[in-house]
Amino acid sequence: MPAQHAHGRAEGGFSAAVEDGVDALAAGQVQHRHHYFPGGKEELLLAVAAREAERVLEDQEPHLSGLRTWSAWRAWRDAVLRRYEQQGVNCPLGEDRIEIQDLMVRYGLGQDLHEDGDNDVLEQWDSVFAPEARVDYSVAGGAQLKDIPFRDLVEVMRAPDGSMSGLLKWQHFQGFSTVDIDGDRAVARTQHLHTHKGDTDGQGWNLIQTGFFVDRLERRTEGWRIVHRTLEIIWMDTFATV
């Protein structure tokens, strides 16, 4: 999404900026927006404004709850000024969520941009995960895949005898994430639909997997990074092609 949407449009103000952001993020997902916000954009904008107001107050704690002396008032004033000087023109509500959503898409690209013997998944994944990040894929591969370093997952999947070695093609679709941000930490839950094409003795087949990624993230100097990921599978099945 263009950066100017996240920062707000001078001529339209907060409401127009949020509407732009919603339209950009929810393109093709209008039915989901209507499900969660049956009142339409007005209800959605009110929910966004309410959450932003909560964050403004949260940013002023613990000073805001202790305004009993002049020194406490001055400490509160200085803390608020520092917070918004650091923030500058960026809208934290939009910027953080968009950056985290981008990580989810980049994870899928790490798989999908590398096929036909190209296994350089880390070209993308090194900017998705923190260096020390671990993943729990035990639901797919047993106890040996519980809380392993994320780079080990590349070997599990892409080695000559890895879990993807018998596949011909694949594509990994990531849905929109629900994100709960608490300062420099966040938790995200992201739907996924992963598709795979294979062939056994001339009979083609498609493997479909649906589920969620549950991620713990931290804000680092280089941006948001996943520090732990858990794979949850709703269903997975193989279908013969016709």
Say what the CATH topology of the largest domain is.
Nuclear Transport Factor 2, Chain: A
Mean pLDDT: 82
Total of DSSP H or I helical runs spanning 4+ residues: 9
What's the CATH first level of the largest domain?
Alpha Beta
For the largest beta sheet, what order do the strands appear in spatially?
A: 2-1-6-5-4-3
Order of helices and strands: HHHHHHHEHEHEEEE
Q: What's the architecture of the largest domain in CATH terms?
A: Roll
Number of strands: 6
Q: What shape does the CA trace take? A: elongated
Kindly summarize this structure in a few lines:
This protein has 242 residues and is α+β, with helices and mostly antiparallel strands. The chain is 41% helix and 32% strand.
SSE blueprint and pairings:
Blueprint: H1 3-7, H2 13-25, H3 30-36, H4 41-59, H5 70-87, H6 92-112, H7 122-125, E1 129-136, H8 138-141, E2 148-149, H9 150-158, E3 167-182, E4 185-200, E5 203-220, E6 223-240
Parallel strand pairs: 1-6
Antiparallel strand pairs: 1-2, 3-4, 4-5, 5-6
Notable traits:
single chain, 242 residues, alpha+beta, Nuclear Transport Factor 2, Chain: A, 6-stranded mixed β-sheet, 9 helices, 6 strands, 41% helix, disordered N terminus
